[in-house]
Amino acid sequence: MSPGITFGVVAVSVSALVLGGVACSTGPTETETAAQDFADALSRRDVQAAAALTSDPAAASSAIGQMFEGLNPTDARFVVASTDSDAGTFTLDADWTFAGGPDQTAAGETTTPTASEAATTTPTEPATREWTYTTTGGGQAVADGGAIPWDPALLAPGLTADATLRYTALAGGSPAVLADNGAPLMTEQTVTLVTLDPAAVPDPTASAAALAPLLQPIAPAISAESISTDLAASQGRPLTVIALRDSDLAPIEAQLAAIPGVTQVKQSRLLTVDRNTQSPAFEGLRTLWEQAQADTAGWAVQLVQSDGTAQWLAGQDGTAAPDIATTLDPAIQASAQAAIADLPQQAAIVAIRPSTGGVLAVAQNSAAGAQGPIALTGLYPPGSTFKIVTTSAALQGGSVTPDTVLPCPGVATIEGRTIPNDDNFDLGSVPLHTAFARSCNTTMGQLAVSMTPTALHDAAQQFGLGVDYVTPGLTTVTGSVPPADTPAERVESAIGQGRVTASPFGMALVAASVARGSTPAPMLVQGQPGVGDSTPTPAPTTVTDDLQAMMRETVTSGTATQLADIPDVRGKTGTAEVAGQPAHGWFVGIDQDVAFAVFVAGADSSGPAVDAAGRFLRPIQTNLTR
């Protein structure tokens, strides 16, 4: 070949390569770009950016904004599934995820599994609520580089300009909360919120004055003055004065409607079957009830027309939640409430069944209720009721037996701390069991001097005091018994003072532990016992037997003889000093398969607590052996 021909061949070959390279690097078509930009804007919920890509941004913005607001997803993704660049059309795959689904963790509780539990338990994920579909949009205008023709159906199948999308939860049925005998204790009921709107009436004070007399027979604490005070605190916002049951509303409904500014709104709530039954334990049960409904609720995505009719697009029906069976005994609860209702001081009673750990009653009077759930979480010095722990520690130390004779002077100076007995009574030298029954502070203080720094802490843990429990439906604190490093601190701790604290629940658990011989796991929902942050070795059976005998002597010939008429009741009184205030009164006891604690704040002696224990026990003697 000649050189010229060779050059020509090479030139043609290079030209072909260059042309081929240009063809391979051609970018996405107008259709692909528009579809991808639209899908990306929807996925990041950029309403304005997505709407701007359409032929009618105003209509598109309204529809897209409503879609995200009405569905309120946890996640939404739009993916371009296919395009036809010549026709300018494309399809989108949509994937919506919604909040909800059963959560297998117990309601209201956060727990960390042990190593063995983690090794044998597979976490259960919440059920997914997901809606997927495909839509088609576009047209020749898109292929020519123009806007995407606006059509609401591009967002979801069947969507039109006159329709909206809505996500809603579907209740699967309301469970009942049952007492220990299977009878309904709490059920879902309709209440009416009575609200006064000061902005809707020229004279709110006059409306308050008209409203109060109608409500006082139902809620005696309500007055025209209290409503006016609450209105002032609401700073012009509507004030919900009361929630009325249907039976309370019916006689006064028309009169309420006639008061200017008063509105009535229906609402469903979990209420006790007996309106007179009240307990701090009910709040935890309400939480469990709400969680049970959420766990079994269904869901639906609906296409809602302008006339309100709705079409199901996706979802699942709810299922009926199982009833919540509790350990609460209505008769024991009612008796506990009645026993302290009329006391002017804050008062509480907690009762536990030793054989099962079931919580039978948690009661507070109105003065206590104003302070919160003190029966379950209030911490106070337990006073002489703590001598149960002190005596247990002494017996386990081996230096004494119940019959060991010890001095019980009226006053003793021990490690620089002057310890008096109540009213300075002096028994001389008496057996330990007598010193316990008569509540000799001087004896107990002297016993504690030679104990180790952790002896009282360890003994308290053997009865559940100082153990933290995670119990479904029940938030509790038992108490605290820190190590006592000095003899003086041990003297204070021995008589339930100093840094020792306990809740009424904690002392009821102490009594239950003595009765059972080991600490029962507290339980409010049947079959769901609490789990403690530690599991101490129980006190020896000989020690708990000795304590039961001493607690019986306390009733027959000691400081609680007011209860001697009640067969076989055992207990320990306590008076706890509080700086600058009247002393608190305590009584912890056991009557057959019921262990309990009575607390009366500022009682100045154990007498009011012992009397309340009698009012609590006498009406329910036939219930105690169930």
Automatic annotation (TrEMBL):
InterPro entries, per the entry: Beta-lactam/transpept (IPR050515), Beta-lactam/transpept-like (IPR012338), PCN-bd_Tpept (IPR001460)
Domain named Penicillin-binding protein transpeptidase: residues: 348-604
Superkingdom of origin organism: Bacteria
Gene3D superfamilies assigned to the protein according to its UniProt record, in alphabetical order: DD-peptidase/beta-lactamase superfamily
UniProt-annotated stretches for the region Disordered: 99-125
Biased composition annotated in UniProt, kind: Low complexity: 105-125
Name of the protein in question: Penicillin-binding transpeptidase domain-containing protein
Organism (species): Rhodococcus gannanensis
